[in-house]
Description:
The protein has helices at residues 33-45, 63-70, 100-109, 132-154, and strands at 22-27, 50-55, 94-97, 116-119. By secondary structure, it is of the alpha/beta class. It has one domain (19-154): Rossmann fold (3-Layer(aba) Sandwich). Helix 3 (100-109) links the parallel strand 3 (94-97) and strand 4. Helix 1 crosses helix 4 and helix 2 (63-70) crosses helix 4.
Amino acid sequence: MSEGDAGSAFPPQPARARRPQAVLFACSENCLRSPMAEAFGRYYFGRSVYFASAGVRRGELDPLATAVMEEVGIDIAGHRPHTFEDLEDASFDLIVTLSPEAHHKALEFTRTLAVDVVYWPTLDPSAVEGTREHVIQAYRSVRESLAKRIKVFFDPRSAAPRDEP
């Protein structure tokens, strides 16, 4: 039975709840949270959705982000941080912001565009202090949180509640 057939476990969703076709993840420096999110989007949904990421400022790729993503078999070592201004195209259906600063920038960026912007408050694990293991655990926590949220939010068959864009 295909999705939407009578008796299907996954009835068709209203148009506004369908998966977007182009998504931008944004954070402060595009060196940690947004590259993780972009990588998970691509990992879970392949080419069915275009995923990209940007930052308010350009930072340097965080080596601990690279390490914790490698733990789950996802390589982000080739990611090159860039900014909103570096984007070649602004044709996104949805921008998911992961920091307050990125949320404000996205709202400014989209003020004349028909783009939904949602805010997912996400801890910046690089600000966590303590032992190396404590810091690494903060990175893992962000990784797991993003993975779960992306999988649920972008899966049109998910019965879990979603944030509305």
